[in-house]
Amino acid sequence: MARFVLVHGSFHGPWCWERFAQLLEAVGHQVTTVALPTAPEEADLAGYAAHVVEAIDSLAEPVILVGHSMGGIVSAQVSELRPDRLLAAVYVNGLLLRDGESLASFLGDNAHLDVDDLVLKNMQVSEDGSTARFPAAKAPEVFYGSCTTEAAEWASARLGEQRTKVYGDPLRLTRSASAACGGSTSGACATWRCRSPTRT
After folding, report:
1. How confident is the model at residue 7 (pLDDT cuts 50, 70, 90)?
2. Using one digit for the tens of pLDDT, what is the confidence trace for 32-48?
3. Residue 95 — φ and ψ, nearest 5°?
4. Which H or E run contains 18?
5. Which residues contact 39 (CB under 8 A, 6 or more apart)?
6. One GO molecular-function annotation for this sequence (predicted)?
7. How far does CA 199 lie from the centroid of its chain?
């Protein structure tokens, strides 16, 4: 059996993995869920990655790292920092950015695609631009479309504030995809994409 380390995305917390963690544990896997820091001095890509690295380093065995959405960018940075500690990296609706790209630059570079991004359209950014929130009333439609009404309401009520600095922080990569997880040759490690990542 394997050890999974689960990294949440924007506005979410370890709570979003509760059902998924229970399913993994029910078949014998071990699960560590990471709460990304919220303090201003830590809530950037470097701080998030350091926090996940600390969690991985506290474990005896190599892990399967799972990043959801923005957590996928964090997972990519962690894959660069601790390739020897990863069995695989799984991106759940996560972006595979190139070296030097940030989420903001990726969206800017691809503005010509005219993507109807309901997250960007609905998130509420603070006056100074340092934080953002997502309205609970819009969350079922945007995040939890495949969930039951009860599950969507449960999750929507738990969405929290997100520091925005991480969106502009560039990813720093020197390794190829095949080297990022202990020499795996299966593409970007074991990269899986799911349509409904928050159904957990």
Report:
1. very high
2. 999 999 999 999 999 99
3. -90, 135
4. helix 18-26
5. none
6. methyl jasmonate esterase activity
7. 14
Token digits of residue 153: 């309401």
The answer as to whether 194 is a domain residue is: no
Tokens 């972006």 locate to: 95
Edge-to-edge order in the sheet of strand 162-163? 124-125, 131-133, 162-163
Per-residue tokens: 14: 């370890």
| Alpha carbons 142 and 112: distance in angstroms, whole number | 22
Among residues 20, 9, 184, 190, the alpha carbon closest in space to that of 89 is found at 190
pLDDT (0 to 100) of residue 107? 78
Q: Is the pLDDT of residue 63 over 60?
A: yes
Q: Is residue 196 part of a domain?
A: no
Which amino acid type is present at position 153?
Answer: E
CATH number of residue 16's parent domain: 3.40.50.1820
For 113, the domain range is 3-179
